[in-house]
Write a structure and sequence with these properties.
Length: 205
């Protein structure tokens, strides 16, 4: 009987050891997988002024008559977020509350940009409670930043320097603009791309 107990205990320790080894291997693979499928950042189409360039100094007038400038912000965070939207874009309309919440959380100065009939834009402003935000209506800014898909966002510092930009469709994409700026990379995808070779090499070892 004692021999059976010893064998049983030995088998239990062997199984436990195998489980520990398997757990460590799984944790390592999860880490590699996390890098490979890291949350996508805002999609930069590599059009228009590049990150690090300065936005042109344009005289802009919001729909409510106020004079505004790119990058000139009184926001506590010192940064300005431009969000290009359209009343014909369902994703734009669903992201407007997200943009407002994100700008408030990050203390950003938020400006909306569109190109449509003034009556359509006024209705959009009323529907989405945008009266507190500058709303630029016209094609000039869209041409400057070469925006061809919406919703599109551009993050500027208080001197008008482009810190990050790209197509957005979630709060995570907005957050990636801040992350890119804080990490000092042109785009969060650049950082992820740099991690992948290292992760793959580690997994292969």
């Amino acid at each position: 009987m004692s021999s059976l107990l010893i064998i049983n205990e030995a088998l239990q320790w062997l199984v436990l050891g195998a489980l520990v080894v398997a757990g460590l291997a799984l944790a390592r693979q999860v880490g590699v997988l996390h890098v490979r499928v890291a949350p996508a950042g805002a999609l930069d189409a590599n059009r228009g002024p590049a990150v690090g360039d300065f936005a042109p100094a344009l005289p802009l007038t919001a729909m409510d008559g106020r004079k505004v400038s790119l990058g000139a912000t009184g926001g506590a965070g010192g940064l300005q977020l431009l969000m290009f939207v359209s009343a014909q874009c369902p994703m734009c309309k669903s992201l407007i509350p997200v943009a407002k919440s994100f700008a408030a959380a990050e203390r950003l100065s938020l400006m909306f940009v569109g190109d449509d009939d003034p009556a359509v834009q006024q209705k959009m402003i009323a529907t989405h409670d945008l009266a507190a935000y500058p709303f630029i209506n016209g094609e000039e800014l869209g041409r400057v930043f070469e925006v061809d898909k919406l919703p599109h966002a551009v993050l500027l510092d208080n001197a008008g320097k482009i810190l990050a930009k790209g197509l957005v469709n979630s709060r995570e994409h907005f957050e990636s603009l801040i992350v890119s700026h804080e990490m000092g990379v042109a785009h969060v995808h650049d950082y992820i791309a740099g991690l992948k070779p290292a992760a793959i090499k580690t997994a292969a070892e």
